[in-house]
Amino acid sequence: MTSLQRFLLGCHALFLGVVLIPSLAIGAPLPKRVLIADRSYDKYYGSHEYFYELIAENGNYQVYQTGQRVGDDSTFAKKFLQAVPTSTVVQLLDELDQPRHSVTPADLHVSYADFKKRHLFKYYKQYRMTWTREQIRFTRKELAKPENIDYAILRYVLRHRYTRLHSSGGRTFTVSLLYPDHQTTLTASSNKYGIPWKDEHGALYYNVGISQSLLALLPAVPSANWTAFQPEDLVPELAEQIYQDRCAKVVGLMSWHTYRKSFKQLQKRYVIGAISEQERSYDWQWNGENRLYFQAKNATMKQGVYLGVALTITNGKLFPVDSLLHQAPRYIQQLQQVPFLMTFLAADTARRAIVSFNNIRSLSEKMKEYQLSGRDCLQGVSTAYLNQCVALRLTEENGRDSVWLITPQLDVILLYYFGQGAYKYSDAELGNNRYHTCKHFNLDGSLKPAD
Asked: Which residues, including other chains, have CB under 8 Å from residue 275's CB and lie 6 or more apart?
């Protein structure tokens, strides 16, 4: 029932000389009481729980706090807070009478035109250290597409296709409307504005107005739900979401064209693929350096063997590819002299051995520093020796992933792995030590005895 319907029915009741709350005139009374439970839990910032009761009295609703728990302190004495007009509860009921089944830009008080403004660049500029005109032009064009804006709302507001990870906190918010003969209960989701809300029958409500009506009923408190219900300008967040979903990968590929002159000679020897610009990212080889990554392959490389090349970008200039042309063949040959790995790769086309090549060597500076520290698998070696070693990543058809090192003497070492084992060995056979495995292998794939 809409506010207009309630108003007209109320007028009809007054015409008959009966003073009634409008909704009561047609047998659909307002709730006698409203119970609200606001709970939020956080490992680091503490827990907050607030409980309220709204009672219909004298044409208004009297709002009481019936209890609260902040951290380890709790109080459950009933305390009067304020009186709110009946119209505030009517607004909440109107939202339930007109359930929405999707969220539009207008619901969030934004428009498609907002995403055509040039100043939005500042909200995603930080994702790259350098920008070309072509990259900026492409990104602005993608931001202005209505279909991208709609998808960003799904992603940012409704968390569509986001992986639910284990969290150190959580929140719940329930509203119970108590009528003389029945009860309606709404539960908020963990998304922005609590949408979609769900009633006791499982019906979903994508009404942003539900949370806004509740803000008008309750006092401000330091709870996660209160923060999530607050209206805010979502254009910056949606612009960042569009960049991540629709632009980041393509913009990274466009970097290849920026440096294409450097690759003319390289492309005469290798087929290039899997290109991406990796800025400020950390992994087992790098400490956040800005770099261009790609994979390379040619006819001298056996099935499943690839080069994984990372060249640093400094002040907009790519590290020269000359060293790759001179050094890479030796590293490939070193790998291909290991019979058990070649046999393993040949048995399944989904398997890959990706030989790392970082600027001028296979081992990155990060890997060499770790080995030289004495904390890892090689003891008492020099930088010159490590420069002759090969680092590679072995990926398998079952999703297993491992990192290996091959010395000049063809000592094959499994450094660490992700998944349930590596190569043909299980977790237990590898000592259940995924992150510091340090297992040495013979060339036939058997494990060497531990020293």
From this structure: 252, 253, 255, 256, 292, 293, 294
